[in-house]
Amino acid sequence: MEKQTSACGLLLATFTSPLRALREAAESRRCLLPILVATALSGAFAVVAIPRIDFATTIAENLDASPAAAKMTPHERKKAIETGSKVGAIAAVVGGIAGPAAMILAAALFLWIGFKVAGGKPGFVPSLAVVGHGMLPLSLKSLLSIPALLRRQALPADALGGLLPSSLAALAPDAATSRLALLSAFDLFSLWSLVLVALGMAHVARVSKVRSAVTTLVLWGGYVALFHVALPSIGAAS
């Protein structure tokens, strides 16, 4: 009988031998450790980032762009900025801690449903194991972003995603907000995760790699359309 790789070994093998690691992760249904690692690294990033985020400037700029804010008194404006800064900090903490697990669970759920619709036979827990390990490159991005963040004294909240020049947004820093949101979707670490998940789901769903790639791309395209096109466009319009 082939010796089973340890949970920590699977994390490393995801980067060195992804096909074997993803297959073993799915078959052994080990999904907890990658979620914990993603949570820990995201939380560490949030701890370093929050004291450096200039919430006040971002909120002040949003108020300046709002016609309703013109009627505010200086005291009301100050209170709005203070309240917004506190809410932003709390949201950053919650997002840093709960965000990775929620994202992995949501991705696994939609992939599980999507591959069933595409004629596959995936199990949910094996899908969760593949997604957890497949998204490890995003955790690597959080880890690599921390040194870049330590060099900054203050930065706007929307600059956090651009600490590493790993997406197409780095090629057009002066583009409109809605366009930057779309370009940021084409990120090296995100695409790396996309490939890993597609490879793993081919095994889990018992489909060809081509069908797995197409299904994964369609689902990813829906995610990009919603979170990188529609919502940023609505935000810019408002």
Walk me through this protein's architecture.
The chain is 74% helix and 0% strand. The protein has ten helices and no strands. α1 packs antiparallel against α2 (18-28), α7 packs antiparallel against α9 (188-205) and α8 packs antiparallel against α10. It has 238 residues and is an all-alpha fold. It starts with 6 loop residues before the first helix and ends with a helix. It has one domain (7-237). The mean pLDDT is 91.
Helical run tally: 10
Principal-axes geometry comes out as elongated
* Strand composition percent: under 5%
The largest sheet, given as strand count, sense and whether it forms a barrel, is: none
Q: What distance separates the N and C termini?
A: 61 Å
Give the number of DSSP strands.
0
Low-confidence stretches: none
H-E string? HHHHHHHHHH
Write down the domain tally.
1
- Structural class per helix/strand content? mainly alpha
Mean pLDDT: 91
Residues in helices, as a percent range: over 70%
Radius of gyration, in Å, reads 20 Å
What characteristics describe this protein?
elongated; 74% helix; 10 helices; 238 residues; 0% strand; mainly alpha
